[in-house]
TrEMBL record:
Its main location: membrane. SMART domains: HAMP, HATPase_c, HisKA. The chain crosses the membrane at residues 12-35, 163-182. It is an enzyme of class 2 (transferase). This is histidine kinase. It comes from the Bacteria. Residues 474-493 have a biased composition (Polar residues). GO terms for molecular function: kinase activity. It catalyses: ATP + protein L-histidine = ADP + protein N-phospho-L-histidine. Residues 184-237 form the HAMP domain. Gene3D superfamilies: 1.10.287.130, 6.10.340.10, Histidine kinase-like ATPase, C-terminal domain. It comes from Marinobacter albus. Keywords: Kinase, Membrane, Phosphoprotein, Transferase, Transmembrane, Transmembrane helix, Two-component regulatory system.
C-alpha cells in the first residue's frame, strides 16, 4: 500500500514524465546512430559490389565472353572464403562460371538488387549465410550475378540492435529507479510538512516544521510557514490575553456590584423592587460565571501538562458525578442509565477530570427534553480509557461539530437556552491536558432529534494495583471544602 501511495504522488508522476522524455530522447539518438551505422555499412557493401561489376564489365569489353569467364574463375580461386559471389549463365540459366550453381530465390528490387540465402538450393556447400547481389544481363543473352557475403554485416546489425534494446531497457530501469528515489525524497519532505501541519491543527501550536539548512525550495517553504504560524500564534495570544485581562479586571468590580445588589435585595420591602433586584443578582452571577470560566480555561491552557497527575479511578469519579446530577434528571423525568466498568484507571488531575465529567453530564441533562434518555458509560478499549455521555437531546449538526469547542460558540438550536458557550471549551482544555481526544457523534443517526454522544478517549493507566490503591487512599474525597465538587455553572454547548 505504501508503494502504491508513492506511485500516486505528483513528484513520482513528474519523475515518470521526465523519464518518458529522457527515454524518448535516448531512443531517437540510438535509432539515428543505428540508421547511420547500418546505412553506412550497407552502402559500403553495395559500393564494393558496384566496383567489382565495373571491373568485370571492363574485362568483358576488352576480352569478350571468354575473358569474362576466365576472370570470374580467377577471382573465385583467389577467394577461398567465398566472400564474393559470382554466377554467369546463359539465357536458359546454364552455368558458365561462378561459385554457386543456380539462381537464388529472394527479394529482388527494380534496380536488380537481390537479398538471398546461400544454401543447398543454390548449390552452396558451406553453412547457410546471407548474401546480397546485383543481377544484370550481358550482351549476347548472358546473365551475370555479382554479390557479397553479408552474414557478418547482418550479425553486426543484430549485435547493434541487441545493444540498443539493452541500452533502452537499462535506461528505462535507471530512469525509473532515479524517478522513484527522487520522488521518495520529495515525498518524505512533503510528508514531514503534512505530519507537522496535522499536529499543529490538532492543537500543538508550539510545533514548527523542521528544516535541513540547505536553503532549498522546501526549506524556504518551511520557513515561510513557520513565520506564518508565529504570526498566527502571536495574534491568537494577543486576543486571548485581551479576553483574559478583561475577565480578570472586570471580575472584582462585578463581584462588588453583585454584593451591593444582594444587599439591596435584602433591604427592600417592595415586591416589585425585590424581583428586579433578584433578576439583577442572577444576571451578575451569570456574568461572574462567564468570567470565572474564561479565567479557568486560560489557567488550563497555560498550565499545559503540568497538572497534578495521579492514578484516578475513572469509574468511581463518574459515579460521584452521577450522584450529584441524578436529582436534576429526576426533576425532568429523564431516564438516567449508567454502564461503568470497574477498575478503569487513568493518570490525571482528579479535580479537573471531575469538572470535565460534570460539564458533560450537565449539558446532556440541560439539552435533553423531559422524559428523554441520558446514558453514561466508562469502559476500556485496548490502551484507551473511554468516558462517554449520550443523550436524546437536540444534538449538534455535523457542520458545527468541529466548532463547538471554540470559546463562546453556541449551536443555533441552543441559543435560546441559558449558557455562555464556554462549557465545551473547558472540556476540551481538560481533555488536552490528559492527552485525550474528543469524538462527537449522533446518538440516533437519521432521527429527529438525533441526540448527541460525546466520547473522550484518554490513555489508560496500567500501573501496579497496589500502588493504585495506595494512591487512591491518599486522594481527597469528593466532599470537603478543598476537594468538593459542585455542578459547574459554565457547562453548556
Amino acid at each position: 500500500m505504501k508503494l502504491l501511495s508513492q506511485l500516486r504522488t505528483s513528484s513520482f508522476q513528474l519523475a515518470l514524465l521526465y523519464m518518458v522524455v529522457f527515454a524518448t530522447s535516448v531512443f531517437l539518438l540510438l535509432a539515428f546512430i543505428y540508421w547511420r551505422t547500418a546505412g553506412f555499412m550497407t552502402a559500403q557493401t553495395d559500393e564494393t559490389i558496384e566496383a567489382e561489376i565495373a571491373g568485370l564489365a571492363e574485362q568483358y569489353r576488352g576480352r569478350g565472353v571468354n575473358g569474362l569467364i576466365t576472370i570470374i574463375r580467377e577471382r573465385v580461386s583467389r577467394d577461398p572464403n567465398a566472400k564474393s559471389i559470382y554466377l554467369l549463365t546463359t539465357d536458359d540459366f546454364l552455368k558458365l562460371a561462378g561459385n554457386i550453381e543456380s539462381w537464388p530465390q529472394g527479394s529482388r528490387s527494380d534496380s536488380g538488387w537481390i537479398n538471398f540465402t546461400l544454401d543447398e538450393a543454390v548449390g552452396w556447400n558451406g553453412p547457410k549465410r546471407l548474401a546480397r547481389a546485383r543481377i544484370f544481363e550481358v550482351q549476347g543473352g548472358l546473365r551475370l550475378l555479382v554479390g557479397r557475403d553479408v552474414d557478418e554485416l547482418t550479425n553486426l546489425k543484430r549485435v547493434i540492435e541487441t545493444a540498443i534494446n539493452w541500452g533502452m531497457g537499462i535506461t528505462l530501469a535507471l530512469a525509473l529507479l532515479g524517478g522513484f528515489l527522487m520522488s521518495r525524497s520529495t515525498t518524505r519532505r512533503i510528508e514531514i510538512i503534512n505530519n507537522t501541519s496535522r499536529r499543529i491543527m490538532n492543537g500543538h501550536l508550539s510545533l514548527r516544521i523542521p528544516t535541513r539548512g540547505t536553503d532549498d525550495d522546501f526549506d524556504q517553504l518551511a520557513e515561510n510557514l513557520n513565520q506564518m504560524l508565529d504570526r498566527i500564534v502571536y495574534l491568537m495570544e494577543g486576543i486571548r490575553h485581551v479576553s483574559d485581562s478583561i475577565a480578570h479586571d472586570l471580575r472584582t468590580p462585578l463581584t462588588r456590584l453583585r454584593n451591593q445588589l444582594e444587599s439591596t435585595l435584602m433591604s427592600v420591602d417592595n415586591d416589585e423592587a425585590r424581583e428586579q433586584a433578584g433578576r439583577a443578582v442572577a444576571e451578575a452571577d451569570q456574568l461572574l460565571a462567564t468570567f470565572n470560566a474564561l479565567l479557568r480555561i486560560a489557567r488550563l491552557e497555560t498550565r499545559g501538562n503540568t497538572a497534578d497527575m495521579k492514578p484516578v479511578s475513572l469509574d468511581e469519579l463518574v459515579t460521584d458525578a452521577c450522584e450529584l446530577y441524578e436529582a436534576l434528571a429526576e426533576d425532568k423525568e429523564q431516564t438516567f442509565e449508567q454502564r461503568l466498568n470497574k477498575d478503569v484507571f487513568i493518570e490525571g488531575d482528579r479535580d479537573l477530570l471531575f469538572q470535565m465529567i460534570s460539564n458533560l453530564i450537565d449539558n446532556a441533562i440541560k439539552y435533553t427534553p423531559e422524559h428523554g434518555k441520558i446514558g453514561v458509560a466508562v469502559r476500556r478499549d485496548g490502551a484507551d480509557a473511554i468516558f462517554e455521555v449520550r443523550d436524546s437531546g437536540i444534538g449538534i449538526p455535523d457542520e458545527e461539530k468541529d466548532q463547538v469547542f471554540q470559546r463562546f460558540y453556541r449551536v443555533g438550536k441552543s441559543r435560546s437556552l441559558p449558557g455562555n458557550g464556554l462549557g465545551l471549551s473547558l472540556v476540551s482544555a481538560v481533555a488536552e491536558i490528559h492527552q485525550g481526544h474528543i469524538v462527537l457523534s449522533d446518538t440516533y443517526p437519521g432521527s429527529t432529534p438525533p441526540g448527541l454522544t460525546v466520547s473522550i478517549h484518554m490513555p489508560a493507566f496500567s500501573g501496579v494495583s497496589k500502588r493504585i490503591k495506595a494512591t487512591q487512599a491518599e486522594l481527597p474525597s469528593s466532599s470537603g471544602e478543598e476537594g468538593s465538587h459542585n455542578p459547574p455553572k459554565t457547562s453548556d454547548v
